[in-house]
Known about the structure:
3 strands; single chain
Amino acid sequence: MDGNKDEALRCMRIAEEAIASGKRERALKFIKISQRLNPNLPASELLDACEKLGSASPGSSVVERSVNTAENGSGPVRSHDPLSGEKGYTEEHIQLIRQVRRNQDYYAILGLEKTCSVEEIRKAYRKLSLKVHPDKNKAPGSEEAFKKVSRAFKCLSDNDSRRKYDQVGLVEDFEHNERHNVRRRRRRKRTGHDLFDDDLDPDEIFRAFFGQGDLFRASHAYRSRRTGSHGREEPDTSGFNFMVILQILPFLIIILLAYLPFTEPEYSLFKNYSHQFPKITEQHGVEYFVKSSAFDGHYPAGSAERANFEDNVIKDYKNMLWRYCHVEMQRRLWNKKLSTPNCNKLQNLGVA
Length: 352
């Protein structure tokens, strides 16, 4: 029951943000979902605000009335949340979120000039991300603003993407071009994390930059948007059939594999139940594991067969290090203090 109540509270907060943005249909949708999950939650005031959206601007909503009250008086603006008593937000928080969401230039979002250095970009991101983080800034739209700040930092901290952005000059045009390029590359071959893929996780950038877990609370987490949804994951009331298929799929795969011919590889770079016998390549001293103690009889040391075999081992080892090194270099764009052990191993093997 507590789980339903928490989910209902979250739906009510989404409805409040929708009212603040003038999205009446979206607000009504989540109010109805919250009422189904927990009928005891008060929703009359939010429903009244939704009705007024049809005849008035979003400024007449519950959230905006709170803002107007603070502008005429003094003290903090409090979000009208009768559900959880959550701490309110100030007028400064609201103005900051509006400013970030309104800006259509990455440099302006971070408050920088186009001639700024990478270090200035890092300092600006450090300062602004702490101010708009959804766990610190409770104003409506803070998650969208936090994501926009993360996009600005991720773009400008990378030399290639910054050069492309400078040629376009507008966020909307640049992101449209990048998404088009991502879809085109996907049709050819699925690559790693593209800069403006839909999988952008602002919290991952935040954690990598500050070199620690969530700075405000451990329970906050962003969902990777691999399904094309925006912001936090929203309740899915129509995914039952898909979830059933996902549950059955492992059993279908196991049955299929049982009837397929399967040959285990002759070696592995890691020790497992099939490959228990350690060997070391003559060149570079790369450790690998084989299936049988009779391996030396099939591939005598110093023979051409053994040399060809170990060439394949070294090639696989380099490919594995290159993948790990690529991830390390990507993360180092966000935090220069992170070490790159796999890149160092590649250099020792003579690979640039």
